[in-house]
Design a protein that fits this description.
The complex is a heterodimer of chains A (781) and B (265). Chain A is of the alpha+beta class and 781 residues long. Classes of the chains: A alpha+beta (781), B alpha+beta (265). The structure holds flavin-adenine dinucleotide (FAD).
């Protein structure tokens, strides 16, 4: 292993600037002649509106007040949903119009109606308060039950019954037959709570327009700048792709919420074109709460059929998924193809059937959030497995082991459209139980009881589909884009290297991991490598970062580019060393003539490539720069077991997590420290969902948890030290053998926590978040 | 934030004068409540009078049988004060449990009690320890200071100068924090003082209140068991997404018993 190569825990290069406040975020940029935007947002969940902007337009410092009517007048296109899900009836999902500024009807609190542009942020905000909005309230539907009820108020004319789609996957007949054979059926009703993403950096954008050239520039908080450019060009149609430059500089966290093409960034870009000056907007935290896409929000009934030996015969799932008021950029695929396809879990369940109704409500749109669909799947599988274990008096670890897909059964075709590539689930479970001292639990429980505390231990044997995604597969399922990735390698004449990736780092540490990969592969010193991302004019077209895809897909694209570099380097070395190309071997950064001591370092090769004074130009092109595109053959399938142990104070209902073990199979690991950090963050996120984070609306559709005073984010003291280990079954179909680690913790954790709590309480009748009050109620029912 | 006139007076009299002259003046202490309120445009005072440079509002000192804390003393200072830790450890630990390090290093006792947030911790100390509040005009008995939700006995333009806490024989404060804000969902100060047993509850109602039945029971037998069967009515208790009135009533009992046990131990 090279010192800073694959497998080394290299400290993150980017952390120095992040930790010393010298990063460069969108809000850190200020352009000459810049103006500032404030939005006028709906305070009603559902209403028709009429706006009077005259006082605002006349206020001091105001440059423009633009409304939904102006937007429609300019024929700015609707925001889109990029994945068309086809329902049981063969019809595409309902994707009603979603204008960047609502013109006559608002559909959730926070829906933007006008953009006020002024000489200062304060003038914009002052003027925004002067926009008179005449609301005619319409009845609002907040819960999915109400939205689907007979005669419910209609949110969109295009979506009768507030139904976005009614979708199914699996084999209904085979599942019914399996339930007919069952010795036992376990049943649960589960709520997967709604979450507000709360990235540390709020969303921000600066739109700019150059009337001299007709070029637009958009700096923004994006996880995928090329997708922003594509959608804003091709669908919203503000500027053609070649006239739109999108820059996503340092971005302070995304968790999915910065994938999407939102109202505000769109309006800012359009407004910049209209006034011919840069327009800047930075959300305040209150705006983030109502305007960033929320996550999860499922209600599910699940049933598991078992034979007398505890083998899983059939799984039946019926889910309602909340889409919020509009269909966000990737909302439709989250509770369908990223969810139903994972219901095999780690098990050999013989028959599976799942139906999902996606529902519109008068709430903030819901879209992908760390894990996106896969946490929902794991949560219900792992809870119903525990329920079955409890019902049948079988140890939960033993029940899982009996049903695991055996290590020699890969590749394993699931009953829900995927093919698992590799895995060894028993290995991770056994190691996790050992690290958690599962066998010593009874003694620890006795100690807790002596102190008047309840103790529980919970498992979560999770699986996810990452490395999103094989274009052919997602295309056949309705995706509007391919999900390959690009990578570019440019050697400079002095031998240092620029690495271009279409993926985007907003906390993941690409600048370190990708440099390690390139250093190891090409033998270039780590410090001579610079990773470039987040700028549509610098990097080749790329699809961005989400779905734990950056290394598996983006890293693999870099491997393709590096293979081309080596091939070209071999030609150059052969010419320079007067040998034949077949005799050139490459290793450790040196091109060597086999069996001789004649060699040339890759830096010398690069120099020669840029100073081609004597090159035979008909055979050898100057320069050393290559681009690779990689489209994966399959998803990757990280999996593992997490074990959570809790102590509950029955008097107050407070839960303390006393021990956590994570054993994850991420395939090969490039930087173990970064991977461990991703697991820590993911687990914290999942613990937040399980214990703390519960987005709540009142009956009128007002967000009750609209600030950190009421919405509880996980903090360091909510977590114990985590014991984190990995197992490894390399991914067989990508060149690095890697699987992805960014979402695993958030996928695994909620079920582990809730299984531990239900074990401690002796009742499964509790939903997330298991706040002290919820636990106390469950105990005192 | 809307625009306002900013004053930085260097005497208490000048501060009072600035307030009196203002159309709608507000004192600023640590700014931990005031500034967020201004930033969210929930308040629009014409004038803000910053007490940071006013002398005589700082310092923690022992005066006879009492600990006197200046209005501008930060929570972190109270938590760390050797004087407080020796005389009234319950007060130091209360201050140490407020919010987070940033809040504790900016927020002041004066700002906290004047704001009279129903979920704030200090009101439980003021009432539970039988403190008195000194202002630029008079002295107010702690029991009379808090008059309702975000309301105090202070008159328009009156400035708190210090709070005097008689040293109790024994006392403890136990708090059940709101998981999000970490203010008190319920906080109970139990004190055995020269003027008798005091049990003061914050977080549960509109304003801090005493539980007479617990005080009576504890006067006869200062033990957790003595109040095990004292039920607190849930009528008029607060309800929010974090805690129903029923749960709050239950927590008052739990926190009170734990406070008694801590004070007795
Ligand atoms: C994130 C967060 C968490 C918190 N958690 C807790 C908690 O757990 N427990 C808790 O008790 N509190 C908590 N607080 C509140 C904190 O204790 C504040 O310090 C307190 O509310 C106000 O004190 P301040 O010095 O900042 O006052 P300011 O915000 O400056 O002023 C508050 C009010 O008091 C008035 N005022 C201030 N000083 C005087 C004076 N000497 N005379 C007359 N009027 C005056 C001001 O005019 C204003 O109306 C929290 C606050 C935050 C932001």
């Amino acid at each position: 292993m090279a010192e800073n190569g694959i497998g080394a825990s290299v400290p993150r290069t980017e952390d120095h600037r992040f930790l010393t406040g010298t990063g460069s975020y969108t809000d850190d940029s200020n352009l000459p002649h810049q103006t500032y935007a404030a939005f006028v947002r709906s305070t009603h969940a559902h209403a028709t509106v009429a706006l009077d902007t005259s006082a605002a337009a006349a206020a001091p410092g105001v440059v423009a007040v633009l409304t939904g009517t102006d937007l429609a007048g300019d024929q700015v296109g609707s925001l889109i949903c990029g994945w068309v899900v086809t329902g049981k009836d063969g019809e595409p999902h309902k994707a009603p119009p979603h204008p960047a500024l609502a013109a006559d009807t608002v559909r959730h609190v926070g829906d933007a109606m006008a953009i006020v542009v002024a000489e200062s942020a304060r003038a914009a905000r002052d003027a925004a308060e002067l926009v008179k909005v005449d609301y005619t309230p319409l009845p609002a539907v907040v819960s999915m039950r109400d939205a689907l009820a007979e005669g419910a108020p209609q949110i969109h004319a295009e979506a009768p019954g507030n139904l976005c789609y009614d979708w199914e996957i699996g084999d209904r007949a085979a599942t019914d037959e399996a339930f007919g054979r069952a010795r036992h059926v376990a049943r649960l009703d589960l709520v997967n709570n709604r979450l507000i993403p709360n990235a540390m950096e709020p969303r921000a954008a600066i739109g700019d327009y150059n009337p001299a050239t007709g070029d637009y520039t958009l700096r923004l908080t994006s996880q995928n700048p090329h997708i922003h450019r594509l959608v804003l060009a091709a669908f919203v149609q503000i500027a053609p792709e070649h006239k739109l430059h999108v820059i996503a500089p340092d971005v302070g966290g995304g968790f999915g919420s910065k994938i999407f093409i939102y109202q505000e960034e769109t309006a800012v870009l359009w407004a910049a074109g209209k006034i011919g000056r840069p327009v800047k907007w930075t959300a305040d935290r209150s705006e983030s709460f109502v305007a960033d896409a929320h996550g999860r929000d499922h209600e599910t009934h699940v049933e598991l059929a078992l034979d007398e030996g505890g083998r899983f015969l059939g799984l039946r799932v019926e889910t309602r998924a909340n889409m919020g008021a509009y269909l966000s950029t990737f909302a439709s695929c989250v509770p369908s193809y990223l969810y139903g396809t994972l219901l095999q879990g780690q098990y050999t369940t013989e028959a599976i059937y799942c139906e999902v109704k996606a529902v519109f409500t008068n709430t903030t749109p819901v879209d992908a959030l760390r894990g996106a669909g896969r946490p929902e799947a794991t949560y219900l599988i792992e809870r119903i497995v525990d329920q079955a274990a409890h019902d049948m008096g079988i140890d939960p670890a033993e029940l899982r082991r009996r049903n695991f897909i055996p290590a020699d059964a890969f590749p394993y075709p699931t009953k829900v459209a995927l093919e698992y590539d590799s895995g060894n689930y028993g290995l991770a479970l056994d190691r996790a139980l050992e690290l958690a001292d599962y066998n010593g639990f009874a003694a620890r429980r006795a100690e807790s009881e002596a102190k008047g505390r309840l103790r529980g231990i919970g498992l979560s044997a999770y699986i996810e589909a990452c490395g999103i995604a094989p274009s052919q597969v997602v295309g056949s399922l309705g995706a509007g884009v391919g999900l390959w990735e690009s990578g570019g390698i440019r050697f400079n004449p002095t031998g240092n290297v620029l690495v271009y990736t279409g993926s985007h780092s907003h906390g993941q540490g690409h600048e370190t991991t990708f440099a390690q990969l390139v250093s190891d592969y090409l033998g270039v010193p780590f410090e001579n490598i610079e990773v470039v991302h987040g700028d549509t004019e610098k990097t080749p077209f790329g699809m961005g970062t989400y779905g734990s895809r950056s290394l598996a897909v983006g890293g693999s694209a870099l491997v393709k580019a590096m293979d081309k570099i080596i091939a070209k380097g071999r030609k150059i070395a052969a010419f320079s060393l007067e040998a034949s190309e077949e005799d050139i071997e490459f290793s450790g950064g040196d091109f060597k003539v086999a069996g001789t001591d004649r060699s040339m370092n890759i830096a010398e090769v690069a120099f020669s490539a840029y100073v081609p004074h004597n090159y035979p130009l008909d055979e050898l092109e100057p320069g050393l720069e290559e681009t690779g595109f990689y489209d994966p053959a399959n998803f990757t399938f990280p999996a593992g077991t997490h074990v959570c142990e809790v102590e509950v104070d029955p008097e107050t209902g407070t839960t303390e997590i006393v021990h956590w073990v994570a054993v994850d199979d991420f395939g090969n690991v490039i930087n173990p420290m970064i991977v461990e950090g991703q697991v820590h963050g993911g687990v914290a996120h999942g613990v937040g969902q399980a214990l703390l984070e519960g987005c709540a609306y009142d009956a009128d559709g007002q967000l009750v948890t609209g600030s950190f005073m009421d919405y509880t984010m996980p903090r360091a003291d909510d977590l114990p030290d985590l014991t984190v280990e990995t197992t490894c079954t390399p991914c067989p179909h990508n060149p690095l053998g890697v699987k992805g680690c960014g979402e695993a913790g958030a996928i695994a954790a909620p079920a582990a926590v809730m299984n531990a709590i239900t074990h401690a309480l002796g009742t499964g009748a509790i939903d997330m978040p298991a706040t002290p009050q919820a636990v106390w109620r469950a105990l005192n029912q | 934030m809307y625009a306002f006139n900013y004053h930085r007076p260097d005497t208490l009299e000048a501060a009072a004068a600035a307030l009196a002259a203002a159309e709608d003046g507000r004192v600023m202490a640590g700014g931990q409540t005031l500034i967020p309120t201004l930033k969210q445009r929930l308040a629009s005072p014409s004038d803000v009078v910053d007490l940071a440079t006013v002398p005589g509002l700082g310092g923690v000192r022992r005066e006879g049988d009492a600990i006197v804390v200046g209005a501008m003393v930060r929570h972190a200072e109270v938590a760390a004060s050797a004087e407080v830790r020796a005389a009234i450890p319950a007060l130091a630990s209360l201050a140490d449990g407020i919010g987070d390090p940033q809040v504790r290093n900016c927020g002041t006792i004066g700002g906290s009690i004047v704001n009279a947030d129903p979920a704030a911790d200090y009101p439980a100390a003021v009432v539970g320890l039988g403190a008195t509040v000194r202002t630029d005009r008079r002295t107010i008995v702690g029991d009379d200071f808090f008059t309702g939700l975000f309301e105090t006995a202070l008159d328009e333009g009156e400035i708190v100068v210090s709070v005097s806490f008689p040293v109790p024989r024994r006392a403890a404060y136990v708090k059940f924090p709101n998981p999000a804000s970490r203010y008190a969902v319920v906080g109970v100060m139990v004190a055995d003082t020269a003027s008798g047993i005091r049990v003061a509850v914050t977080g549960a109602g509109d304003s801090v209140f005493r539980v007479g039945a617990m005080e009576t029971a504890l006067a006869g037998n200062f033990s957790a068991d003595a109040i095990r069967n004292v039920a607190v009515s849930q009528d008029a208790l607060n309800e929010d997404i974090h805690a129903s009135a029923e749960y709050r009533a239950h927590l008052v009992g739990v926190m009170a018993r734990r406070a008694v046990a801590a004070a007795a131990g």
